[in-house]
Amino acid sequence: MGSDTSVDTSVVIPVWDAYVDARLDTAVRSIQDQGWPVDIILVDNASTVPLPPFPDTRQVSAPHRLTLGASRNFGLRAVTTPYVVFWDSDDVMPPGTLHDLHQAMGRADDTVAAATAMHHPLTGKRYPFPPRWAYRLAPRPRLFALCHTVRPLYPGLGSVLMRTAVVREVGGYDDTDDGGEDWALTSALAFRGRIVLTHHPGRSYLATPDSRSSRQRSLFSVWSRRCRVRRRLRADPGLPAAGKRLLPLLAVVQWFDVVLFRILRQLLQKANGTVTGPILTNSKGSPTP
């Protein structure tokens, strides 16, 4: 399917071990049911459980177990389409997502990525990411890019459509498993063009306190991800010189964000009996507003 000129979008899904179950089948079917021609690329990340054949998909096999970021980059090598989506094998793509993403991508010639909102599959509630204030910043690309380096404003995986050539140009994902492998990538993308956000619920994501994004919340993990963002931008030939001169100031702003906001939020949530994660849950496991 990758050679079919009518297909303009690839969806890359790394999978291994326990992820080779009914969730993977559901994820693949939800993409195939979009009614949009796609090239689905399953990355066998040295899985100990053999991947079953899926009709109308391609499988590429990593030579050994890769980090999550590296496994996505491995799948990126097989992409032959101008647009790419990186999907998790345990997520569901709601109807109309690919159509909405392509409509958003076409709103401006300088758009490099388009992203949707995401929701909890059991409650239907919208996650607080992308944050609502990011939608107001998006029409101002430079300011959006600067703010995104301090706090993520849009996702680098899931329901985000990206220009393949630009993803390759900026170096793809970080070779890590720490839950922030996409942030440096999305920061570099934001400095190369416009990011369009839509309110369409394009990703059904069941986040729990055990999710990767919930577990990687230590002060060290939070700060190391910000350091990687600065390293990527410092080495990025596409970043304007004025942006590179702002990197020392950016480090200070990032540090204040980590210390003042993250720690105070964790203390507040601890006092209220809540946990920190992509979606906040109370002591009974129910989502908070």
* Total count of strands: 7
Percent helix range: 25-40%
Category from helices, strands and their pairing: alpha/beta
CATH 2nd-level architecture of the largest domain? Alpha-Beta Complex
CATH class of the largest domain: Alpha Beta
Radius of gyration: 18 Å
User: What is the CATH topology assignment of the largest domain?
Assistant: Spore Coat Polysaccharide Biosynthesis Protein SpsA, Chain A
What is the averaged pLDDT score? 86
By DSSP (H or I, 4+ residues per run), the number of helices equals 11
What is the first-to-last residue Cα distance? 42 Å
- Sheet bearing the most strands, described? 7 strands, mixed
Annotated CATH homologous superfamily of the largest domain: Spore Coat Polysaccharide Biosynthesis Protein SpsA, Chain A
The global form is globular
Poorly predicted regions: 275-289
Oligomeric state of this protein: single chain
Which strand-content bin applies to the residues? 15-25%
Number of domains: 2
Element-level helix/strand string: EHEEHEHEHHEHHEHHHH
Question: Main sheet: which strands, in order across?
Answer: 3-2-1-4-6-5-7
